[in-house]
Amino acid sequence: MSIGGREQRTGIATFNTTTNKTTTIVNNYYGFYFNCVNDLVVDSKGDIWFTDPMYSWFNALVDTPPQLPTALISSSSGSQTYRFRPSTGAVTVVDDSMVQPNGIAMPPDEKTLYIAESGAVSGTWDYNLTTIHGSRFNHTAKRGVYAFTINDAPNGSGRYLTNRHPIYLTQDRTPDGLKVAANGYVVTASGKGVNVVDPVGTLLVRIQTNFSVQNYVWTGREYDDLWIMGRGGVQRVQWNLTGQVLK
């Protein structure tokens, strides 16, 4: 992909708000370009966990066909989730069971990793960029939130995941913008709304919107303001469900 005459690849970068300079910290897996880095979460050890679905290719946002494992709606495994350790530069695959891994989050105790599965929105494998691209919605395909147990490696080299299990199936479109509140409740956007579920997936409340929600963020001195953003709107919610304090 060329931006301003310079090659750019999907990845993770830092942005200095004082100098307006960006620095890429990771944009490939042993030389293979990522497909479409979508969302990330940083743990207390400084490791960055991120998802890599395939939407950039489906929607003709990149000019290089996928180089890493991918999946279609009917696949049993495919697109991957990674852990990047800035202190060593190591990039590790932590899961390849998702069709289209999307949002990713963990609670304050860092015992669980939640990943949103958006496999119901998928596209074509056609490698001819002259064809019509896009991401179709299949209501019967994967569209839920999964929980994993986070384990520490005995030698201290990192963390790995076990015990994958579903906790929630969205009632509207696919889950997006996944986050975990300070009390452990899981919050995810789905279609025209934001859902709050407990750690075992029981739906507690839904914030209805008149636009398709793509992401949201907690703000305010007490982290009790929720700003919701999406296609065609921005909404503010003031409630007593607080977000995690940024480290």
TrEMBL record:
It comes from the Eukaryota. Residues 9-228 form the SMP-30/Gluconolactonase/LRE-like region domain. Pfam families: SGL. Signal peptide: none annotated. InterPro entries: 6-blade_b-propeller_TolB-like (IPR011042), Oryzine_lactonohydrolase (IPR052988), SGL (IPR013658). This is SMP-30/Gluconolactonase/LRE-like region domain-containing protein. It comes from Coniosporium apollinis. The lineage of its organism: Eukaryota, Fungi, Dikarya, Ascomycota, Pezizomycotina.
